Amino acid sequence: MTSELTFRGHETQPMADTYSPKPPKPWLAVTRPIRYILREQRLTFVLIGIAIATLGFTLLPSNQAPQRYSSAIFDSFPAELESSHLTHRPVYNERRFGIQNWNSGGKIPLGLKRKGKRIVVTGGAGFVGSHLVDRLMERGDSVIVVDNFFTGRKENVMHHFGNPRFEMIRHDVVEPLLLEVDQIYHLACPASPVHYKFNPVKTIKTNVVGTLNMLGLAKRVGARFLLTSTSEVYGDPLQHPQVETYWGNVNPIGVRSCYDEGKRTAETLTMDYHRGADVEVRIARIFNTYGPRMCIDDGRVVSNFVAQALRKEPMTVYGDGKQTRSFQYVSDLVEGLMRLMEGEHVGPFNLGNPGEFTMLELAKVVQETIDPDAKIEHRPNTEDDPHKRKPDITKAKEQLGWEPKVSLRKGLPLMVKDFRQRIFGDHKEGGSSTTA
Ligand SMILES: NC(=O)c1ccc[n+]([C@@H]2O[C@H](COP(=O)([O-])OP(=O)(O)OC[C@H]3O[C@@H](n4cnc5c(N)ncnc54)[C@H](O)[C@@H]3O)[C@@H](O)[C@H]2O)c1
């Protein structure tokens, strides 16, 4: 009994001295290990081993942000889908330089960190741009700010000086520029009426030639391009609230046209580069935004009211004060811009806060926040000033999963704190953070 259990060789091993008239079959030697595996049920163990290993690799956490557009799949993207507004193409630089380039499965080998993107922010020394730069730096990206300092200030980004991931170039976007980048946030353009009316020809040049230059750069280096357009493309809207499909009611020859029509042309150029040159683009239509680092005295209603109330001057209300605006805190906008850039949809997307205030209601909130005795002074309305402005943000909610979170009563005190410091030189209260 014992010998049968321990020695089975005689069942399979041909006896060396046994005579056989047939020549030995060579394939028998090959199949012997297989027969052995089958008989001893080793195959079951091998299969269980493979299953455990597969499960282990599948469940291992990926240490990289979800891979969106560097997959090899896109190399064979059907041409008809490439022109669709809702699809996107691979970023050339990501394929060439990023870790993602050689790891299209979305996982990075253990021990290697996610490599940040290289991003240029035109107008990055301005109000919105500098807050965007803060968020990108925080995320670990390398950021290049391109700005001619027409309305922007070095102070807005000075806290990044010395960081090897941060660079700053004094440059006018009306002139061409070549940079190796993965993404371009194109914000360069004076945004307040006081500034864009100061030199209207320069404003429209910035919008048209500047945007052309940046789109040319995006095409050349395969970068994704995001245009910060404006609610002004709706002009004095005949539809309320404004949906992205509304084409607007704009005066092409008015004093604001350098900005309104300039931005409309910038949108046209952006879509033409997308359709005609396969550039990956995104378009944001920004509604009134406020927050720390806004230019003091730039003529925009929130900064005007806050600066006037702090200086104990009467707040200037144009017209009867019944025209409405929506006010978005800057951190909400930056979140929307980043979601748009990283997402899969071209847009355009309205980014704004749908909470609607009349100018008189806004003045009241400023009174509550700064000085209950602040006075209001009425002046005649300016030409082409739209009567109503309120974004419909359904599309951004559905496709970007975005909506503003900071109310006017929460965001305004943060702006007041920053303005107080800059107007009165009072540095006791801390920096101009975006956090609400
Ligand atoms: N803030 C808002 O409420 C709002 C609303 C709608 C649209 N936008 C858009 O968002 C973008 C940023 O607006 P913002 O409020 O930060 O304005 P901002 O004036 O604070 O910033 C604009 C920046 O662009 C720079 N710039 C202007 N012309 C340039 C040129 N030719 N070359 C290089 N740099 C140039 C300025 O120096 C400044 O740093 C603009 O494109 C604006 O049209 C803003």
Number of contiguous helices: 15
How would a crystallographer describe the biggest sheet?
A: 7 strands, parallel
Strand tally? 13
Sheet/helix structural class:
alpha/beta
Which architecture of the domain at 118-291 and 328-353 and 388-406 would the CATH scheme give at its second level?
3-Layer(aba) Sandwich
Give the rounded overall mean pLDDT.
80
How would you portray this structure in words?
The protein is an alpha/beta fold and 436 residues long. It is built from 15 helices and 13 strands. It has a domain at 118-291 and 328-353 and 388-406: Rossmann fold, CATH 3.40.50.720. It has helices at residues 2-6, 9-12, 26-39, 42-59, 79-82, 92-96, 127-139, 193-196, 200-221, 257-277, 301-310, 330-342, 359-369, 394-400, 408-424, and strands at residues 118-122, 142-147, 166-170, 183-186, 224-230, 281-286, 289-290, 315-318, 324-326, 328-329, 349-351, 356-358, 376-379. The strands form 4 sheets. Strands 3-2-1-4-5-6-11 form a 7-stranded parallel beta sheet, with helices on both faces. A two-stranded parallel sheet has the order 7-10. The chain has a two-stranded parallel sheet with strand order 8-13. The relative contact order is 0.10. Bound molecules: nicotinamide-adenine-dinucleotide. Nicotinamide-adenine-dinucleotide (NAD) binds next to helix 7, helix 9 and strand 5. Residues 121-413 form the NAD(P)-binding domain.
